[in-house]
Design goal:
The chain contains six helices and 14 strands. By secondary structure, the protein is an alpha+beta fold. The strands form two sheets. It has a seven-stranded antiparallel β-sheet, sandwiched between helices. The longest helix has 17 residues. The protein is elongated and about 80 Å long.
Length: 336
Amino acid sequence: MNRRRKSITALSAAVLLLGGCSETISGTASPVPGQGPVLTKAAPCSLLAPEHADALALKLPGVETKGDKARKLPPMCLLSERDDSPRGVSLSITQSADIPLNDFYAGALPGEKFGIGGFTWTRYASPLGPTACSLSTELGPSSFVELGSETQAGAPEATACDLALAAAPAIASRLPGGEPNPKIVAPPGQKKPEPSGPLLQVDPCTLLKPDEAAKLAIAPGTPVDPANLANPEDKGCEWKDSDGDKGQRPLNVTLFLATAVADVAGLQGTPEETDLGGRKWTVRSDTATKYCTAALPISATSTVKVSSGHWDDETKACDLLRAALPTVSAALPAGS
């Protein structure tokens, strides 16, 4: 099961666990003053406008499941993160028109409250634990909306509600009495940033000129086919070695125009920091693959990656890269 499918399944399971309990807590759900009329029909996938889904890097259409009133399960909409989302997670939207909030949560304890979009949203304890978030607003005695999200991979538990909180203004704007025209901002890592920064105007093949390449016994650089790059906005250049399919591997430079260094693939091995004129490169050598990489964050969302290796001898994997790196680094734009 891939990470994206597991994410959706977890959110779906959380709703089933919440609604599937038969025990209810004491008390009666009360409408919150000023929150508009009670809904008569639940349509959770209609609560996220296309422009808001785009802002949150979520795929449309969502997958809607029918409710089961006997099991206290309102209709639910599952929206997965887009394929280009760096560390994105899914969002679930549950909407009830005929099941009280207390019945749905069946004893789950309310926690922190947030005033968002004209409504009071309350976080409840999730049966999936602290890495999952269940955020709800009560619209009437038998109507509510619940948003579910989870932590990004490797992120702290405190971020479990980040996507739900970011989506709440968008959902609120589609509810009766909600504040219109919200500005939606995705949590860090949820949406791929737009290409920006000093690398936009850089041709990677100019970072190591033909005469400089000749001194390293490699051919002049040639552009890498965009189809062979990780992202459509990336730019790459390759300097072929002179000993064929053995010994030394080619040298490659890739400019990631919208990828944080933490999200660049293929950076394997024990890191070693190298300072070149104030630029702090991280060099890694992977003995298993006889492959060597160097990465430099240019900004929070752009990275330079240099890579090479050796087909036969792991002790030589970084030789060409280390010889070329000072020249490549010095050729980068000033201030980057």
